Amino acid sequence: MGFWQPDPVRVLAGQASEVELKLVVPEHRGRSLGLDPDRKPDRRVYFLDTPDLDLYRNGVIIRFRDRRNQRDDAVIKLRPVEPRRVPGWLRTADRFQVEIDALPDHAVCSGTLKRRLGRNDISRTLAAGRPLTGLLSARQHKLLTRYAPTTDGLIVYGPIDVRCHSIKLRGLSRDLTAERWRYPDGSDLLELSTRCPIGKATTVAARMSAALRAYGVTPADQQRTKTELALLQ
User: Fold this and answer.
1) What share of the chain is helix, strand, coil (3-state, %, to 5)?
2) Nearest to residue 178, comparing CAs of 44, 2, 25, 76?
3) What span, in angstroms and rounded, lies between the C-alpha atoms of 47 and 132?
4) What is the pLDDT of residues 23-52, one digit of tens each?
5) Are 59 and 144 contacting, i.e. CB atoms less than 8 angstroms apart?
6) Which CATH fold would you assign to the domain 6-232?
């Protein structure tokens, strides 16, 4: 599977129908892919957690995306999740999705419940000093009641400026998504990703790896998730 180890994905293959292949690469390599480092951010991302990260340490992630010229969204993610243990009211909910997140050295099954918001809902809520939890749906609050160890004392992590690009590489029939995250401390993370059916993961991973090598792009030494850096930096 090229840059990805096949065993973690195979172990989880029966739990989801889709996999998102993710690869953190050295930030400067974005230039060889034609990414504009001076492009304005497309969105600002915020997370909610306690000062001790009680939610994250128990596999619960609350994320808000303030998207320029698009509708905002609010997401609660369970990572890891065992789909067979997800209650029916959540498993059949609109906008609940189960997929495998695969970095080169590990893979994990995630469950995501999303709510679409209006444009500028997040910036207006923050400007008014209201809690972002007020933007969550009733079903998202129910999810938190079941899975979060606490919802007291939540604080905002962010904002994180994000630039998103869709890129096409020679030798690869599918587009890749490139996300450059700029954290409040000035550090950066550049992640490349694509989604595919689990049955095609081996082929897509091998072709994606070969295409990136042709552009001189190889994995960064540390493969850390965007959320991990946002909360643990």
Assistant:
1) 30, 35, 35
2) 25
3) 10
4) 999 987 778 898 887 788 999 999 999 999
5) no
6) Hypothetical Protein Pfu-838710-001 (2.40.320)
